[in-house]
Amino acid sequence: MKRFPRTRTLPTLLSAACVALCLVLALAASGCGLVAAGAVGGTGAMAYRGYTARDYTGSVERVQQAVRQAIASMHLHVLDEKKVSEEDGGSHLSIYSEFDDGTDFRVSLRPKKGGVTLVEVWVGHIGDPARSNKVLDAVDTAMGQKGTPV
């Protein structure tokens, strides 16, 4: 018995498209589509945090001096420094500067246990890990130690 390839007629294609459309609408109406879209968006946000961080052995004051020295070694200037209180009762120090092209950046220093200071660098509005690492490399040089990536 000879078999012929199955041909798809217009009614068959239309019914398949109708079934697919109904499935998409049912998924959207049940809220699962929104949950799935939120999960994908949240995963992307977690993967890209925008800042780069390293731990340094030393007090906040010592690391603060090193950050100032690092900024100066890059031929840049400290624009502002602020001590910021946090909701949990702690605080951190933020040092603000900008690159020659006008892109601003913030270096935040947070004390941790055991004489360690966390240094976080955020460049621009959405973050720039490559430029953040350049700042942290200058801090490494000023501290005389390689920071531990976090």
Describe this structure in words.
This protein has 150 residues and is α+β, with helices and mostly antiparallel strands. It has 4 helices and 6 strands, in the order ααβαββββαβ. A 6-stranded antiparallel sheet has the order 2-3-4-5-1-6. The longest helix is centred in the N-terminal third of the chain and has 21 residues. It is elongated, with a radius of gyration of 26 Å. 18% of the residues are buried.
Task: Categorize the overall geometry.
Answer: elongated
Number of helices: 4
Order of helix and strand elements from N to C terminus: HHEHEEEEHE
Spans of at least 5 consecutive residues whose pLDDT stays below 50 are none
CATH topology of the largest domain: Double Stranded RNA Binding Domain
**Terminal CA distance:** 69 Å
Give the CATH H-level superfamily of the largest domain.
Sirohaem synthase, central domain
Total number of beta strands: 6
Number of self-contained structural domains: 2
Residues in β-strands, percent = 25-35%
Give me the side-by-side strand order of the main sheet: 2-3-4-5-1-6
Radius of gyration: 26 Å
The CATH architecture assignment of the largest domain turns out to be 2-Layer Sandwich
Structural class: alpha+beta
Q: Main β-sheet, in a few words?
A: 6 strands, antiparallel
* Percent of residues in helices: 40-55%
Output mean pLDDT. Answer: 83
CATH C-level category of the largest domain: Alpha Beta
